[in-house]
Amino acid sequence: MVRRVGRPCQSDALETRRRLLDAARESFTTRGYDNTTNREIAQAAGI
Asked: With contact defined as beta carbons under 8 Å apart, do 40 and 24 qualify?
């Protein structure tokens, strides 16, 4: 994935948000809220 300088376009930002929320939901469901880290969510979302 190529990193671009500056703010992401809105469609990219929305896609990233969707991936993060999906990854968080999955992790919260399987590991629980207290056992989930931001790092795990970001890694699962491919960020």
From this structure: no
Is 16 within 8 Å of 45 (Cβ atoms)? yes
Tell me the helices (H) and strands (E) count for the chain, helix number first: 2, 0
Q: At what angle do helices 38-45 and 10-31 cross, to 10 degrees?
A: 120
One digit per residue, the tens of pLDDT, for the chain of length 47 reads: 566 676 667 888 999 999 999 999 999 999 999 999 999 999 999 99
Question: Cβ neighbours of residue 1 under 8 Å, at least 6 residues apart?
Answer: 46
Region of 8 on the Ramachandran plot (φ > 0 left; ψ -120 to 50 alpha; else beta) = beta
